[in-house]
Structure formats: C-alpha cells, structure tokens
Specification:
9 strands; five-stranded mixed β-sheet; Rossmann fold; Fumarate Reductase Iron-sulfur Protein, Chain B, domain 2; alpha/beta
C-alpha cells in the first residue's frame, strides 16, 4: 500500500493561481484574530494557505490536525485588508471548506449532524420556522420565567449547541405589523430600491428592517419588499453546502426585479457580503463540476446581476446623500466594525458618517475595532472556546471606551457582543446605526 498522501483533486472550485498570489510575507498575521490568540503559525492566513496548497499538491494529507487549523478560521477576511499582494483569501478558504465538508467523516465533524440538518439548515434559513421555534422563549421572557430558567441553570441540561443558542438569545421585541410589499418615497423621489430582509436577522431584528425601510422612505426612496425572497445562503455555504447556497442565490435572483431597481439594500454585513459574492459562488460550483466559468455563463447571469445591485444601507445612503436628521440624541457610543462590512465589503467611513450626522451623539474610538468579535456566522455555536476568547477581548476594549451603547452593522455581532456584555453584568444596548438614524429622524 502506498504511503503517499492523497491530494484533494483540482476541481475544488479554486483557481490554483490564487494560491500563488501569496508571497508569505506575514503581514497578515497581526490582523488575524486566531493567530493573535494562539500565536500558532498554522492558525494564521499565511500558514493556512500553505496547508491548503500542500494538501492540494498532495504533499500532505488532509489530516484531522490540518483540518483543525482550517476549521478554526473565522473567515473574517481581515487578512485581505492587511495583504499588500491582494490575496483573495476568502476565495481560497471558502471553496476549500466545501471540499473538506464533502470528504469529512461525519463522526469527526465539529458540528453534530442533527444540529446542522435540523437547526443550521433546517430552521435558521426559514423565518416562519424560526418564529415558531422562538415562540416558547417569547412566552418565558414575557412572563419573567426566563430568569427562573437562568437562575436554575436549566439550559445546562441541553446539548452544547442549543445551550450556546440560549446564551446568545437577546430580549425579543414585539414584532408588530409586517412590512408591506411596497412603501412609497416621502417627499421628492430620488431612487427605487428593494429591501433584503434576511432570515435570522428578520426574526430577531425585525425592528431594524422596519427602521431601514422608514429611513429609506425619508430619504426619497420607493421601497419594494419582495415576499418571495429567501435566506442569502451564507448559512449553507459556510458549512460546506455550496449547491443549496447556489439554489438560494438563484431563487433570490428571481425574487428581485433587478432592471427596475437602483439598488437592493441590505442591513446585515454577513448577508451583504454573501450576496455580493454570488458571482464567486457560481464560479466555484462551476469549477467543482468541471466547467470553466465562461462555459457556464456566457453572459452575465441572473445571480451576477443581483450581486451588482447589492448595497449596504450605509453605503447606499452615503452615495445618495443622506438628508440631515434633526432630533438630538445625547448619548456616548462606540462603533464596532463588523468583519464582513469592513474587510469583505471595505465599508468603514459610511456608518461613521451617518452617526456623525446625529446631533448630540458622541462617538468614542474602539481599540481593535476591526478585530473579529467571535460571532462569524455560526462560528460562536460551533467553536465556542475561540469565540468566547474573542468576545471577551472585544468587550475588554468596549469597556475601556466608557461608552453607554455599542453600535454595529451586523446581526451576528450584535448577538455575540450583547451576550458577553450580559455575562459581565452590563446593561448596555447594542444597536444598528440605522436605528439611531431613524430615531434622529423622529421615525
């Protein structure tokens, strides 16, 4: 029997030339959250690229040890910001993880099979299922019995992933009326947009979608909210299920009348990053199926057309020219840069610009603002130890600002940060920039 390591085949969805872009200079290491915590070169972007390339070349096996270093990556893409050579790390780690997931022994998976099937893939992407699943918690919170559950530590009886879900659960607000399919512009019409509402974000942060729609209206936008839209596919894609993610992408492409829209607005950084990457997803699936991207897409595909119209709400308003709000908000806040906003989408100044327009609002600088808080989609459910270390590192820096409120543009970050703040006994709100802007507009 040959002792030669088995290479992952070349149809991983990765253009091999992307590996060669990395010159191994190491400038990415100081930006990598896991390397900052472990100091292990294999937990750095440079080290992970070396590992992936060595496996691809057949020089080493995709052993449990190698997989562990790759699994620990948050896919925050801070290395892309730090890299002087323009390495597209996300275009390496994401398709490689898909291949890993397809080859992995289910018994060795860090994510229990039942949890991925019934929770990550079976519940999270479907808002109606999520609403029903959270109904008991709404009752417990409304009656105060949730405090009894916490006091008796009953959640510790649940399996690990469910226990961590309970820890992250925020105070659930009354949902109120559903958004209609269309909301007309107020005042002079300046743009026609659609609102991407998401899945988990819409269930837990429906009020942010409402605030976003109202702010867009106040800035002269006709707002369409298609009922047939669905999950962006990030939950599937980041857990190695690229084909279901592509099917969701195709469904979303049909849901939005792209030709009639100036932009499709997103208020969740992770969703926005995924939506903007639909073209890459399509290309990776084509390569994995043995096709060139040109063979599968002779012209711009529907998913690529949708991707070209995606705008984060802060990005869009900054380009449109936001109407100045007038209501004073006397509050000291600090702003956390969501990884998939600042690194994946390179959006940094726009949220701060919106916050800077609000009379009375004082913005304190947050140290290591662009270092991941440990949320990273479902990472804080599947990698609790590292997520906890990064969450506490983030809150250490938040505490140092003496701010009374944290502002961030991503639902996952909001859940992670509020959970750590709660554990430390802080009664500090974590809000979206658009919530403060809506309040200052008097909406």
């Amino acid at each position: 029997m040959s002792n030669q390591p088995t290479a992952i085949p070349s149809n991983t969805g990765i253009d091999y030339e992307r590996f060669l872009d990395c010159v191994h200079c190491g400038l990415c290491t100081s930006a990598c959250p896991t390397y900052l915590e472990t100091g292990n070169e294999n937990d750095s972007p440079r080290g992970r690229i070396y590992l992936m390339r060595a496996v691809q070349d057949g020089r080493i096996e995709l052993s449990d040890k190698v997989s562990r270093h790759l699994d620990l990556c948050l896919d925050c893409r801070s290395c892309e910001t730090a890299c002087p050579s323009g390495v597209e790390y996300g275009r390496l780690i994401e398709p490689f993880r898909v291949e890993m997931a397809q080859k992995q022994d289910p018994a060795k998976s860090k994510t229990p099979g039942w949890f991925q099937k019934w929770i990550l893939h079976g519940m999270f992407p479907y808002p109606e299922r999520m609403k029903w699943a959270l109904w008991p918690m709404r009752v417990l919170q409304a009656t105060g019995l949730d405090r009894v559950v916490d006091a008796l530590a009953l959640a510790k009886l649940a399996p690990g992933p469910l226990r961590r879900m309970h820890r992250l659960l925020p105070k659930l607000r009354s949902r109120g009326a559903e958004l209609p399919g269309f909301l007309p512009a107020k005042g002079e019409k300046r743009a026609t947009v659609a609102l991407f509402t998401g899945c988990v974000a819409d269930v837990m942060f429906h009020h942010v979608n409402v605030a976003t729609a109202k702010v867009l209206q106040a800035n002269g936008c006709d707002v369409h909210i298609p009922r047939s839209q669905s999950c962006c596919g990030a939950i599937h894609y980041h857990s190695g299920a690229d084909q279901p993610a592509l099917e969701l992408a195709k469904g979303n492409a049909k849901a939005f009348d792209i030709d009639d829209l100036d932009a499709v607005i997103v208020n969740v950084a992770g969703c926005g990053s995924m939506l903007k990457d639909y073209g890459h997803l399509e290309e990776e699936v084509a390569l994995r199926n043995g096709q060139s991207h040109s063979e599968s897409n002779e012209s711009s595909s529907p998913v690529q057309q949708l991707a070209s119209k995606i705008k984060d709400v802060s990005e869009f308003l900054a380009e449109l020219g936001p109407i100045a709000p007038s209501k004073t908000i006397e509050q000291t806040v600090t702003y956390h840069d969501a990884c998939h906003l600042c690194h994946a989408q390179q959006i940094r100044t726009q949220p701060r610009q919106l916050l800077g327009m609000i009379p009375g609002l004082k913005l304190e600088t947050l140290a290591e603002s662009e270092i991941c808080c440990g949320a990273a989609g479902s990472y804080n459910l599947t990698e609790p130890e590292m997520a906890s270390r990064l969450g506490n590192r983030k809150v250490d820096n938040i505490e140092a600002t003496n701010a009374k409120m944290v502002v961030t543009g991503n639902a996952g970050c909001a859940l992670q940060i509020q959970a750590v703040l709660k554990e430390r006994g802080h009664d500090m709100s974590v809000v979206h920039p658009i919530e403060l802007l809506a309040e200052s507009y008097g909406l």
